[in-house]
């Protein structure tokens, strides 16, 4: 059985570390140098249930002499130092058990253990479940969900995600009907949970769908046009008649940029990667073929500078990288702006 500790082996841990840290440091140094495994160092924490004793000891156990550390955590937090008498119960039991972690809660003594919980340990089967929505949220039955290029990159493992921020990293846009009014709505869920049959959506991120739009139309609008509104209108301050180079012009963001720039009467230049996309832009977006360039090489730089008489463009909407990005920089005119997507 471990030896009953003397008063010098007991250190009360409080919020004011200046009172005990130096003493603890000296005790650990001494424990490292001596060869007596029965001389343990006892840390007593009773000033608060949030005093940090558990993390402190877990870290110090890896230090030289840390194997001598034991602690008693008064979980009830009396707010004052606790007198410890290892000759009487329950402290005599704690001493004989010789455990590192000892917890006193509601007069009972225990310790901490890692337990493997069943997958459904916190689930209860019920035929009825009531959800308090509050005044700023509503449930919508989903009929459409948008698939963004970002979703594809995540699924293919090409884009890292922080799993601590959300339990579902894909599915950002939705269109459906409100369960309370039946109104057709479109919206976004910043928690990325739109690949589902229903969604618990915040009112500020949900709006009515115009009558002449289908739900397929609606679910393809929000992310692309909000991206371009912020990038082109808010940040780049797009003006009537400016010249704009749109990279990847046949994609969702690219088509949205074309619509906005055509509305502003801009002089438009576009890059795409395939012949099919060139045909699409010519037939569906009315872009002249001499304003469409290849995004797979850097020849577009010389072509754009030649067609603009060496002036370059006012704004670039960029989605390229590497040497193509370097070439893009050289296409920007004086006082030009780049919107990085």
From TrEMBL:
Look up keyword Transferase and say if it applies: yes
Question: Any idea where the Enoyl reductase (ER) domain is?
Answer: 110-341
Entries under Gene3D superfamilies matching the protein: Medium-chain alcohol dehydrogenases, catalytic domain, NAD(P)-binding Rossmann-like Domain
SMART domains the record matches: PKS_ER
Q: What GO terms are given for molecular function?
A: oxidoreductase activity; transferase activity
Keywords for the protein's UniProt record, in alphabetical order: Transferase
Per the record, the domain of life is Eukaryota
For this entry, the protein name equals: Enoyl reductase (ER) domain-containing protein
């Amino acid at each position: 059985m471990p030896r009953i500790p003397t008063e010098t082996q007991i250190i009360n841990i409080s919020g004011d570390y200046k009172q005990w840290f130096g003493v603890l440091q000296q005790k650990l140094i001494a424990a490292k140098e001596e060869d007596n495994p029965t001389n343990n160092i006892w840390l007593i924490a009773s000033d608060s249930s949030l005093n940090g004793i558990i993390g402190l000891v877990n870290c110090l156990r890896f230090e030289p002499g840390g194997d001598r550390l034991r602690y008693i955590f008064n979980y009830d937090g009396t707010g004052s130092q606790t007198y410890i008498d290892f000759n009487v119960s329950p402290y005599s039991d704690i001493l004989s058990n010789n455990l590192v972690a000892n917890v006193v809660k509601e007069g009972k003594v225990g310790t901490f253990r890692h337990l493997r919980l069943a997958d459904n340990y916190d689930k209860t089967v019920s035929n009825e479940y009531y959800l308090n929505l509050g005044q700023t949220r509503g449930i919508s039955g989903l009929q459409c969900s948008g698939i963004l290029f970002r979703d594809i990159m995540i699924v293919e493992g090409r884009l890292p995600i922080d799993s601590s921020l959300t339990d579902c990293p894909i599915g950002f846009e939705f269109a459906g009907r409100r369960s309370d009014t039946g109104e057709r709505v479109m919206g976004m869920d910043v928690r990325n949970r739109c690949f589902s049959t229903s969604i618990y959506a915040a009112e500020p991120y949900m709006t009515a769908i115009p009558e002449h739009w289908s739900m397929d139309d609606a679910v393809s609008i929000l992310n692309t046009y909000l991206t371009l509104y912020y990038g082109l209108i808010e940040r780049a301050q797009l003006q009537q008649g400016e010249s704009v180079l749109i990279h990847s012009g046949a994609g969702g963001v690219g088509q949205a940029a074309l619509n906005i720039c055509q509305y502003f009467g801009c002089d438009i230049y576009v890059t795409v990667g395939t012949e099919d996309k060139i045909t699409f832009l010519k037939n569906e977006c009315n872009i002249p073929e001499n304003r469409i360039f290849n995004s797979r090489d850097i020849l577009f730089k010389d072509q754009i500078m030649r067609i603009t008489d060496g002036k370059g463009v006012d704004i670039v909407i960029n989605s390229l990288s590497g040497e193509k990005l370097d070439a893009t920089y050289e296409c920007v005119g004086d006082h030009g702006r780049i919107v990085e997507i």
